[in-house]
Specification:
- It is a single chain.
- The chain is α+β, with helices and mostly antiparallel strands.
- The protein has twelve helices and 17 strands.
- The protein has three domains: 78 residues, Rossmann fold, CATH 3.40.50.20; 65 residues, 2-Layer Sandwich (Dna Ligase, domain 1), CATH 3.30.1490; 191 residues, D-amino Acid Aminotransferase, Chain A, domain 1, CATH 3.30.470.20.
- The protein binds adenosine-5'-triphosphate and magnesium ion.
Length: 373
């Protein structure tokens, strides 16, 4: 697995269950998966020779992020490595402009968007769609870091010349700012041989672009739930996704379901599957990339909620608060062994209950204790 963050850490836990020899490629020995005891090799995800050296004899190469550049992926494939997912599917998670364009061309519902190479392109888009608008980095963004809401033309003044990319290679896209009724995530696990199973849709809540918490079931009409999971299954099949494929979806106040973005790896919105589903997303990611039969994805409890532990400003030490947090009934704590820095995701809490409201209250109570100063 290229990458050694919390997703690799939790995949390592699943690998132990299955006695799969999972080696992670880490940028440093203090990354979450390495600290969990995963066998590791050093390597920068942009360095083909380091990745090749890390993977001799690997049956399959998979990823905990989308940071391996396309040309490096091509080099790994040319050297005989089996990449799951492969470069063509990964491209959908690496370049938001490519993903939007390609999905729109295939008839999938996406927000209105355009590639922009400068303020005049944004103003031209605004002429048709009005303000506010959302400016998005084509690549490299996460947790809302590449997303800027533009209230009006005045917000275009602050950007430096080089911000917009180079001619013919726009670095940003602009899209309509939607009135959202809800945000959903639909995850599927898919094997190279085609077997695919959808997880129940999850309802996520973002604050300032970062997912704060989620609940499952999503509490949406069954027809909308079916539409969301069908979209995920169709898209995963069509792009040849292997492993976990996560769709982030917008539900607009007008009732439209639109695809926001794709991830081709275990996803933050799927963490509740560890406790709440028959098979966790991490087990199914391994089973899928190894082309083994998938585990059932259904809920084994009435309701679950996950609260992300996002470090607030000021010093906090979740580990010191752990015993107190574990006193909250029904809450499962996952700490990622990451140093606390304001705005950083350092763990999550999942709680199970009879209703999503009760599950969210328990998970939030434990999270509040963990982040107490
Ligand atoms: N067009 C839009 N209209 C309204 N809100 C939006 C729009 N695009 C993004 N957002 C809000 O910003 C959040 C982050 O956007 P997006 O998922 O595109 O960025 P990201 O930083 O790549 O996220 P991630 O951390 O999931 O990779 C969304 O979950 C949503 O709450
Ligand atoms: Mg997102």
């Amino acid at each position: 697995m290229v990458g050694a963050g919390q997703l690799a850490r939790m995949t390592h836990q699943a690998a132990v269950d299955l006695d799969v020899e999972l080696v992670v490629v880490a940028g440093s020995a203090t990354e979450p998966a390495v600290l969990a005891g995963a066998p590791h090799r050093p390597g920068d995800p942009r360095d083909a020779s380091a990745l090749l050296a890390a993977a001799p004899g690997a049956e399959v190469v998979t990823f905990d992020h989308e940071l391996v550049p396309g040309p490096v992926l091509a080099e790994l494939e040319a050297a005989g490595l089996v990449l799951r997912p492969g470069p063509a599917a990964l491209a959908f998670a690496q370049d938001k402009l490519y993903a939007r364009s390609e999905l729109a061309a295939r008839g999938y519902p996406v927000p209105a968007f355009a590639a922009v190479s400068g303020p005049s392109d944004v103003e031209a888009f605004a002429a048709g769609h009005g303000w506010p608008l959302v400016l998005k980095s084509r690549s490299g963004g996460y947790d809302g870091r590449g997303v800027k809401v533009l209230a009006g033309p005045g917000d275009l003044a602050g950007f430096a010349e080089g911000h917009w990319g180079t001619p013919g290679q726009p670095a940003w896209l602009v899209e309509e700012h939607l009135e959202l009724a809800a945000e959903l995530a639909a995850l599927v696990a898919r094997r190279p041989s085609g077997q695919a199973l959808a997880y129940p849709a999850v309802r996520t809540t973002q604050v300032e672009g970062i997912c704060r918490h989620l609940v499952v079931p999503a509490g949406i009409p069954p027809a909308l739930e079916r539409e969301a999971t069908d979209l995920a299954l169709r898209i995963a099949g069509e792009i040849g996704a292997v492993g976990i494929c996560a769709l982030e979806l917008f539900v607009t106040t007008a009732g439209r379901l639109l695809v926001n973005e794709l991830a081709l790896r275990p996803h933050n919105s799927g963490h509740a599957s560890i406790e709440a589903c028959a098979t966790s997303q991490f087990h199914n990611h391994l089973r899928a990339v190894l082309d083994w039969p998938l585990g059932q994805t259904g809920l084994v409890v009435p309701a679950a909620a996950t609260v992300n532990l996002i470090t607030p400003a000021g010093d906090v030490d979740p580990a010191a608060n752990l015993p107190a947090a574990l006193g909250v009934p029904g809450a499962s704590v996952h700490l990622y062994a990451k140093a606390s820095r304001p705005g950083r995701k350092v763990g999550h809490v999942t709680a199970l209950a009879g209703t999503t409201e009760a599950a969210l209250a328990s998970a939030q109570a434990a999270a509040d204790i963990l982040l107490r100063r």
